[in-house]
Amino acid sequence: MTTNLSERQAVIDGCLAMNRLGINQGMSGNLSHRIDGGFLVTPTSMPYDALTPADIVEMGFDGTYLGDRRPSSEWRIHRDILRARPDVTAVLHAHPPFATALAVHGRGIPSFHYMVALAGGDSIRCAPYATFGTQDLSDHALTALDGRLACLLANHGMIVLGSSVAGALALAVEVETLARQYLYAQQFGEPAILPPDEIARVAEKMRRMKYGQPIDDNDAPEDTARPRL
C-alpha cells in the first residue's frame, strides 16, 4: 500500500512545474518532501511526466529506502538538509539557466536588489564545486545554506528550501529572476550593493507583511470604519 499520497503527488506536481516554469530541464532536477520519520524524494532517471505516486522514493535519515525505485543521485543533499533544518519541508534542486550561468563562474548573488532578502540574508551564496551525488557536495551545500533558504552550486545549479513544495517553487522562480536581473545589470558594470542593515530592514518588513502586520510603526491604517455605499 502506498502511503503519504498527497505528499507524493505534491512532489510530482512540483517536478512538472519546475520544467513548465523554466527553472529546470528534462530530468536534471530533483525534489523532496519531509514526512514522519524521513522524507520522499524523486527517483533517479525517470521522466517527470511518467511519474506516479508509487514511483516517489521513501527514505529514512539513515540513508535506507523502500521500494523498487532508486532515489535521486542527490539524495544526500535532501537527507542532510531536512535532517539539519527542522524549519524546512521541501528541498528543490534544479539547473535554471541564469542561476547556473552565475554558478559556473563560482558567483553568488549579492544584495544588488532588495528582493535578495527573500532568500534569508544579504546574499545568495555559491557553494564550492564537488562531484554530483557526493557527500562533499552535500556538505558544501549545507554550509552555503546556513541562515539561508537558497544557494547556488558552483558549476552545477541551484538549491531552494521551502515550508511547502509551492513555497520552494515560488522562491526558485524569484532566485532565477534575480540571477537574470543581476546578469543583465552587469552589462553596465557592477551594480550598487545594498548594505546589510537595509536588507535586514527589508526582511523585517516582509515578515510583517506575511503575517498581515503593519510594515512600519507609522504604517497602520487609521482605526476608523469605512462607510458602506
UniProtKB/TrEMBL annotation:
InterPro entries for this protein: Aldolase_class_II_sugar_metab (IPR050197), Aldolase_II/adducin_N (IPR001303), Aldolase_II/adducin_N_sf (IPR036409)
Keyword annotations: Lyase, Metal-binding
Keyword Disulfide bond included in the entry's annotation: no
Gene3D superfamilies membership: Class II aldolase/adducin N-terminal domain
All residue ranges annotated as the Class II aldolase/adducin N-terminal domain in the record: 9-183
Record bears the keyword Iron-sulfur: no
Pfam families in the record: Aldolase_II
Molecular function (Gene Ontology), one example: aldehyde-lyase activity
This protein's GO CC annotations: cytosol
Gene Ontology terms: biological process: pentose catabolic process
The protein's name in its UniProt record: Class II aldolase
Naturally occurring in which organism (per UniProt): Azospirillum palustre
